[in-house]
Request: fold
Amino acid sequence: MKQFTIEIAKSDINATFKEPNDDMDGPVKPRRTLPSKSPSVPNLSQVFRATGPSNNLFKLKGQNLSQGHEQSGQNGLGLSYSSTNLSLIELYNDENGEEEGNESLSASLPEEVGINAKDVVPQQEVIPRQDAGLDDLSHYDRYGFKKQSNYINENEYDGWWKDYSQYCIRRKRKWQSLLEKSGFPMTTEAPDRFPPKSEKLKRYVRKGIPAEWRGNAWWHFARGQEKLNKNKGVYDKLLASLETKEYERRENSRDSDIIERDLNRTFPDNIHFRRRPNESAEPLMIQSLRRVLNTFSIYNPKIGYCQSLNFLAGLLLLFMDEERAFWMLVIITSRYLPGVHNVMLEGVNIDQGVLMLCIREYLPHFWHRIVNKQYSHNNQFLYKLPPLTLCTASWFMSCFVGIVPIETTLRIWDCLFYEESHVLFKISLSIMKLSEEELIHEHGPASKNMSQDDADIEVFQVIQTFPKKLLDPNSIFDRVILKRRISLNNLNQEEIDRCRKYVRAQRLKYKNYADVLGSNPKSNGERNALVELDVVNDALSSEVYGFRRSLTGLHWNNSIKEKVRQIRKK
Amino acid sequence: MLQFKLVLLGDSSVGKSSIVHRFVKDSFDEFRESTIGAAFLSQTIKLENEPDVTIKFEIWDTAGQERYKSLAPMYYRNANAALVVYDVTQADSLAKARSWVEELKSKVSDKDLVICLVGNKVDLCEDGSEPKAVEKEDAESYAAEHGLLFHEVSAKSGSGVSAVFQQIGSKLYAQKKDSLAASSQQRNTVNVELQRPSTNDATSCCS
Reply:
């Protein structure tokens, strides 16, 4: 085991050198000349081959590895990143693992590279010179994100990473032995098959998938290959259609305008995405991102382009090739977050309604801070969503990308693809639960004298900044997600699906009532006035959503309780 | 200290967040991440023409894409001021700004709502890197016609940004001063009425 990670690093580099020959005979499709393919995860080289890689990609990869240390500093620009990140993830782990042995690390690297692991931090060596000249790369994490943010300084980051990187190494060993025991012999590549779902595997996923396996694991758990097999060649066709005149004439070329404006506003602090002022060449990641977002906007006209998809696609591209990233985006927006990114954003409003019901059920104290008493007894908050949802809506739209620090985001994504969307609700509730302590600490218990507007702002400020400080994923996972015997564990996918159905029906019903009552409300102002009407009010609050609760093995349903009460009244 | 709620509206990437960050943190990033949903920030200023008056702006910064428009009423509900931003190098962003102004005028019942039209990115025209697509006079006359304040600014250089908030602050203060005077007079009369029963009933409530 001691040697394992080192062997991976070695073989990956060797593989990189060999690959140009392996692929010489493959036809080169035009788009591949701008190598779309996963710049980050080297272990996906198998995938590159399967989907028809370009010779260029591997040539440049090779170039980078041999030239990256020359003083001239001219390298394959963005392309050179492709090989670096692979090494970043692998080497960083090794470097921080005391037992892994740094001597053997340097011995395992090819001669040409000439790294002396004792003298230099590995990631400084593998990153292109031009970057190293302008920035000290120790300021960036293993995915190329800046360690420092407005809420976390670099010392804090380094202090935490020292421990967390050890944790990652320990977890990876556990994964390796799990896979071996399950009859998946470990090779030097990232595994592309995983054992069938089980409580044990779920626990492993919740504790984090090894970073360099994530691309494959997400793809596997989200059943990406199934989707791709049903749609062979679709992505290529979509790409081809981007070139046609028809596309340029399209009415909704508005989408591509907004995409264009958002490209440089996607991870501007990440070395793979950022565009330096005065630099003419566009990073390859940005080119990939443009293609994925534009093809997606044609593929799903109900969504087109929605701001936040840029962050989803951007993060996917750090872990998998362009075609896979595209299909994962399709899966996220249809299976996990149905309707959330649609033109009308109705899915977001439904999910926010569901979240509000969950807060009322699981975080009653917090609930009283955010919802005015006069609305809390009935279902008004399902249409007149509390202002807090302006913040929490973005949690769902971007699946926490940019909301929590990156390692925490990735842990959430691990669970999202394994356990589906209820994870997003659980995490949201967890964040609120944890931030409630800060709220009480900073502002004291909920005050009755405060106006709802002031209370809203107080809560909003804490809820908007608190997640940005969640540097350590375990601070949230250990305390909430991995904890047994907490009521939140009752919240499963079935419950969320049921709840979504209920909220959708309630919102629709409200809309219908409003129509019947003679005015088709266009503004929220009119809408709110309508909601005051008793008739609508009574009709809508007659159905109460009942959460399933497991009490002594029985499911207790609130709506049954409510019905019994109503029968008794009569 | 007076508190006012201010909302930023305008097309995607015209520089709403950049204006706020210049105002609140006096900083600028060439590439700023797109705003998803909303962000809340606050900043306190002293009025230049009324040095005794401090004003706290509670600022709601919003996402610019068309589809987020359905969420907008949540922001401009109870707003005292709105900054409607366009990009001086993008003609269609002024059209979008006009539609925001219309929406505010039709949906916000508060007659005192202060709307300020702001043309951003003038630095790009000054250094010649982009042609100016919206002439100052055109935007200015539109603003005058509709009773809006108007400024051209650069979030990048910072020029004009604080003037926007100073002017909005002064206008809000002037309005508030009038209504404060009016309501304090009102309150006095109300108080007299209230005091009567409370003194009379001092004994009766115990019996």
Remarks:
- The first helix of chain B runs from residue 16 to 25.
